[in-house]
Batch of 2 targets.
Target 1
Amino acid sequence: MQTRFPEWIRRSWASGNDFSFTRGLVEDLSLHTVCQSARCPNMAECWQRRTATLMVLGNTCTRNCRYCSVPSGKPEPPDPEEPLRVAAAVRDMNLKHCVITSVTRDDLPDGGAQHIADTVRSIRSLCPETTIELLVPDFEGDEHAIEIVLTSQPEVFSHNIETVERLYPAVRSRRYTYRMALGVLRQGSVHRPKPIIKSAFMAGHGETKDEVRQTLCDLLEAGCEAVSIGQYLRPTPKQREVAEYVTPEVFQEFEALAIELGFQFAVAGPFVRSSYRSEELMQTRFARERMDVVTG
Amino acid sequence: MTYEVKLPSLGQDAADTATISYWLVEEGDKVKEGEDLVEMTTDKAAFIVPSPKGGVLIEKLVQEGDEISVGDVVCVLEV
């Protein structure tokens, strides 16, 4: 077990009243969060801010990526009441912007697309002012499934590229491919009305700066407009080791590079995650102007 | 009055054990509520535990290198 981390890999282990509120809400509504399943180091901060990233379609993923601590195996059938409970949680947390993600469900004919779309509609019904970011799996590239999700009209359509192309076989489940991930983003970028297209990846797996640049270029080419880059942190000893702790200065370089290359929004840092402080994207001029176009 | 500082839970599937890496406050020192008390590491990151109350740290119950679990008493404060 590693006993010392670089000084910038340090968070607060705090749990005040607001943390307890979030935990109570998640438990009472029998919801899953990626915060818990991925053992996110930002969890204390986010839950104290009464936010959480809710994960639908259960807590069991049908893929087994080498960096991820979400349990893998044979999942339970989707719970038809879950979309309503998620909507109730969004309402009770009083979220102006929510991020909904999902485990990968290769066992379902549509990959769970309809369930995800139902969740968006339930949130719309209960919280019409709340903007929604969907962080979706790749649906094995099934365009029909992706279309089902897109027609629910999330404000942000997100799919994580996760790592650079060379490291895909070492990092991800063999069923994921880099090109398939780009295809998911590309389909989102040509959909009308067009949501904001967002992706994320983790540094620290052994990628080079040139590979980071190439990944950013590939994402842009796929129509991606927003990107977040964080540090891979090994959730438990079962997962892949960290190859490198990227310094905050290099993360600043990545952020500047992303903007220079043409991203409308970029955030990079050791504790940046795809949904970490995602509401900041919605506060940008870019997002506000886009929403004006979408909503008329 | 004494107050036992326990390692709080971060939620069901989140980290529930940690190793004390170093104390930021010595026995006999005053601490304010929210002030950094002790650093610990999980497999994933280093975490600082803030003091839940203001007072004087009168006894450390775990030492650097000890592995502790959620709910374990870390130290005692005179509040």
Target 2
Amino acid sequence: MNAPSAPSVGLRLDLAGDFPILARPVHGHRLVYLDNAATTQKPAAVIEAEARFYRETNANIHRGVHWLSQQATDAYEGARRKVQALLNAREPAEIVFTRGTTEAINLVAQCWGAANIRAGDEILLTTMEHHSNILPWQQLCERSGAVLKVVPVNDAGELELEAFEALLGARTRLFAVAHVSNALGTVNPLPQLVERAHAAGALVLVDGAQAVAHQRVDVQALGCDFYVFSGHKLYGPTGIGALYGRAELLAAMPPWQTGGGMIRTVSFERSSFAPPPERFEAGTPNIAGAVVLGAAIDYLTAVGLDRIAEHEHALLARGTATLAAIPGLRPIGTAAHKAGILSFVVDGIHPHDLGTILDTEGVAIRAGHHCAMPLMTRFGIPGTARASFGLYNIDADIAALAAAIEKAQDMFGSRRTR
Amino acid sequence: MNDMQANLRELYQEVIFDHNRQPRNFHAMADADHVAEGDNPLCGDQLKVYLRVRDGIVEDASFVGHGCAISTASASLMTEAVKGRAVAEADALFRDFQTLLTAADPAPARARRDFGKLEALAGVREFPLRVKCATLAWHTLHNALVDAGEAACTE
């Protein structure tokens, strides 16, 4: 692989060579990809797994009686076991393939919600949730007459734990919370939150979209009831993700979408449905997506999630220090426990202008509200610029980011020196 | 200077910085008789356009809101450009401006109209992701002119 990477001083991971897209020049510059919270780039192993599936294994699953169908079924169910292992779920049946995080949350809100939520019940969220972890619950409340409550965050972007305790009550049925905030990088103290929610009689759904590719996740250790993530933020394909649900919870939930693949028997008088996970996987699923997600998990596991976490923490520390040295730049989200996300605003430059100027230097970041409008409102800003790290980022990326920000300040005439 | 840097200079001209730093007609208008709101939900830009129309002429125009330099400058230049124009003429300018920014070939639009200071925004053509920033104020203007009664949106 043609690795474009600069030396990674003091950082042990240097994996850019595994990612063909990172060799593409952008506007004459080396691509500095810092939009990993939006989606990650794919290693060659994942890209090749996609081609290999269609070249060698493609067939419909479960229904076929032929050899190739058995191969495809084995690959699909093998991928389910890889997700099970990634999350340390107890059994493969606790893993439902979905299109992604958003669909997984909608599935729980609709299926679990329909069976369990009544008027007057309470769903507890936090101010830092992604819209995907707000709207399904808001809709559930509108349908059922339940009430949405929201845990506030402090100026650093951490949950206010006293308020959380105060909001938890006998009517709280579910607490839905991000493992890692996509807009701020805050890592929430899940074991503590789960314990308190359970003590109050509530279930806990964790939005793991920003966590699974960046640290080891163990749903049994976390104690959560549902955990959801997307494949494309995990160096895998788009359109595939997973819902982990405790076996007894999934078993008690009514079907999601109905149709082929999720039935036990069908008659025009009455039909019965397959047990989980098939109950929630109507239609021909994204077979290739699941299989290739499995390849992405293999890649991540081979690199080692602990090493990745260590590498990204080093990047975060350096990035935080580097940006702090830029006059006129204000970080948004300074929690004590953070993942590799740097969100910030720069005096006199709107995040979108910043994004455009950085792009002309080959630096890809996100600018805007990051689908977390209530959080932006909390901080009194329309949006931020956000640099988010992946396992292939290196020191030179931080330097390029800082240099591009200073260039934008020069253009806008807002550069100050200390 | 590579192409992209040249394009960037074209996008962020001094006129844009000037109108971003000191937007003209940046206030709520107490005696406005045409008002419309616009927003770009994906980027969070929001603005409100105020017009005072007398005898079919836009006597006064103003705006409030927040957005990037392109969107603020565009709104500022827009209020200057429509003042004193007949309603139909102001709406025609909206359409021509849109053509200037988005048509495959803007030359015919330039041939039939002198865009004056609005030419400063033509550089956004090279940044398709930013076109909506430059057109938000104009879509909102259009809604204010026709009293569409719903928020303009360029998503």
